[in-house]
Amino acid sequence: MGRAHTAFASGMSGGPSFIGQDAAWREWTGAIESERMHHAWLLSGAKGLGKRAFARAAAAELVREPGSKTPDPLTHPDVHILEHLPANDDEAKKKADGKPFQTKRNITIDQVRRMQQRLTTRPTLGSRRAIVIDPADDLEKNAVNALLKSLEEPPVGTYFLLVTHQPGRLLPTIRSRCRILRFAALGADELDAVIRRDVPEADSASREAAISAAQGSPGMALTFVEQDLGRIHELMLRILHEGDADYHLRGALADEMGARPTRERQVAALELARSVLVSELAGSSRARQLRIIEAHGTLSKISMQAPTYNFDAGLLIMEIGGLLASTAMPRETAR
C-alpha cells in the first residue's frame, strides 16, 4: 500500500481545496450548515478521484466545533473509520512500523459490530459523530445486513459516509437510505495541476503519459508518475496497435518492469493495462470491442487478486502483454 493519493490541498483559509471536486465540497458544507442534514451519504465515483481523502476531510469538518480548528480525522474520538484491516499479525506489525502491508479482502461484520457498540454512547467531544466506511463495496454480506440496521435507526448526531466505487454492488436498501454525492472524472488541465502540485519533479513526458492513461483519475495519474510507467505505457500501446507475434514487445515490457518489481508497481501496471484497453474501445470494430471487453474482464479479475496473491512478476507481465496482444489490430491470439 502506498500513500493515499488526494485531489485536494489546504486552501488559503485553512480549509481543504479540492481540484475538480469543489462542487462536492460545497454541497457537503452546505448540508452541514442546514437545519436538517441527511444522516447517510454515498460518496460515489470511480477509484482514484479523491473520495477517501474527501471522506476524511468531510468527517473532520462535521465534528469540528464552531470556532475551533479542523481536527485530525485519524485521531479524533468521534470519527470512526472502517477500512480493510491488516491480513494477519505480521502485516499488522508492518503497519505499526509504517511499512507497506497487505490487507484482508473485506471489511468484516466484527468491525461493524464494534462500531455499533460505540453508537450506544453519546459523541465524546461534541454533538456529532462521523462513521466512514471505505469502501462500502467491500463489506461482507453479514456486515451489510448489520449496517442496514444502523442506517434504518441512526442514533442522534451520527452521520455515515460510505465510499463506493461501484454503487451497484450495494443493496438497494442501503442506497435508498443514502444521499448520493457524485465525484466526476477530472479534465486534463486538472490532472496536470494535481501532478504538478504533488510530483513537481515529474517531466512533461511523464505527465502527458499519466494524463493520457489515467482516465480522469488523479490517483491513477499520480501512481503512473511515481511508478515511472511512461515507457511501459508506450510499450502497451505498441502491443495494442501492432500486435506482438514474435514476443519482442512483451520481452521489452518484462525488462522495463524489472526482475523484482514491488507489488505496488505490479498493481499499477495492471491498472494501466486496463486503462489503455478502455481508451481503445471508441472507434474499434464490434469484433475488436468484444475482445477488448473480454481482456479487460480478465485483467479486472487479476487486479482483484493482486493485493493478496503473490504472483510471479515475470509471468504476470507476460500475461498482461498477452491479453493486450489478443486485442491488437491486426489480431493476434494470446498464448
CATH architecture of the largest domain: 3-Layer(aba) Sandwich
Number of domains: 2
By CATH, the superfamily of the largest domain comes out as P-loop containing nucleotide triphosphate hydrolases
Strand order, main sheet: write it out. 4-5-6-3-7
Arithmetic mean pLDDT: 89
Q: Give the C-alpha Rg.
A: 21 Å
Helix percentage: 40-55%
User: Count of helices?
Assistant: 14
Q: Which class of secondary structure composition applies to the elements?
A: alpha/beta
Shape: elongated
Order of helices and strands: EEHEHEHHEHEHEHHHHHHHH
- Could you name the CATH topology of the largest domain? Rossmann fold
Largest sheet: 5 strands, parallel
Strand-residue proportion: 5-15%
- The unreliable regions are 1-6, 8-14
Protein name: DNA polymerase III subunit delta
InterPro entries: DNA_Rep/Repair_Clamp_Loader, P-loop_NTPase
Pfam families: DNA_pol3_delta2
Please give a structural write-up.
This is DNA polymerase III subunit delta. The protein is α/β, with parallel strands linked by helices and 335 residues long. It has two domains: 8-182, P-loop containing nucleotide triphosphate hydrolases (Rossmann fold), CATH 3.40.50; 227-325. The chain has 14 helices and seven strands. A five-stranded parallel sheet has the order 4-5-6-3-7, sandwiched between helices. A two-stranded antiparallel sheet has the order 1-2. Strand 5 (129-134), helix 5 (141-152) and strand 6 (158-164) form a beta-alpha-beta unit. Helix 8 (204-213) packs across helix 9 and helix 12 runs antiparallel to helix 13. The longest helix has 20 residues, at 286-305.
